[in-house]
Amino acid sequence: DAEITQSPRHKITETGRQVTLACHQTWNHNNMFWYRQDLGHGLRLIHYSYGVQDTNKGEVSDGYSVSRSNTEDLPLTLESAASSQTSVYFCASRGDRAPDTQYFGPGTRLTVL
Amino acid sequence: TQLLEQSPQFLSIQEGENLTVYCNSSSVFSSLQWYRQEPGEGPVLLVTVVTGGEVKKLKRLTFQFGDARKDSSLHITAAQPGDTGLYLCAGDRTGGTSYGKLTFGQGTILTVHP
């Protein structure tokens, strides 16, 4: 069965370190998204990609970057981790039809000390 | 700016009671999706409503899309402890450069006590 996975599931890091969160999907979807979830804010879009070599900024993109070198993967990098980036991060993918189901990964809980 | 206002944020009820969760916006959406999320997992899609005035039923859950496609509601009849979880609404402005970019409400944490 197709799926979307994230790794690691839990990560503790220190302020100023670079961190990369992995996202891998086997749906063969062109569209991939990264969200962060914080209490009281729902999910907020960080970055998204509509295909290989395509990346776009979402509403809370400062301090984050992504790259898309193949269809299956969209890694999220925190260039210099800050305590404000402590959150739960979700990756999602979606097909090209409208409307279409957006499938979410299980999430990565990141703590920045 | 929160474009989708979801209320209430917390709901604690007894088994058998009915409840309604609201999702309101000043923006028009091409579709509105409702998700349910369990602890430690990602959101899972429950339903998508597309047409203004549309009503969809999923067992004891009834979803409605406002006539103007700016608001939606989720009604649960005779709630059960298994309904406990986080419910999220998300608006989709599909089209052009906005494809797939969901705008989420703050979420409603529902607890149903036996």
What does this 3D model show about the protein?
The relative contact order of chain A is 0.33. Chain A is built from no helices and eleven strands. Chain A is mainly beta and 113 residues long. In chain A, 0% of the residues lie in helices and 52% in strands. Chain A is globular and about 40 Å long. The model of chain A has no long low-confidence stretch (mean pLDDT 94). Chain A starts with a strand and ends with a strand. Chain A has strands at residues 4-7, 10-13, 19-25, 31-38, 42-51, 54-57, 64-66, 76-78, 87-94, 102-104, 108-112. In chain A, strands 2, 4, 5, 6, 9, 10 and 11 form a seven-stranded mixed beta sheet that branches. With 114 residues, chain B is an all-beta fold. Chain B is built from no helices and eleven strands. Chain B has strands at 5-7, 10-14, 19-24, 31-37, 44-49, 55-58, 61-65, 71-76, 85-92, 102-104, 108-113. In chain B, the strands form two sheets. In chain B, strands 2, 4, 5, 9, 10 and 11 form a six-stranded mixed beta sheet that branches. In chain B, strands 1-3-8-7-6 form a five-stranded antiparallel beta sheet, with no helix packed on it. In chain B, strand 4 and strand 5 form a beta hairpin. The model of chain B has no long low-confidence stretch (mean pLDDT 91). The chains are: A mainly beta (113), B mainly beta (114). At the A-B interface, strand 4, strand 5 and strand 9 of A face strand 5 and strand 9 of B.
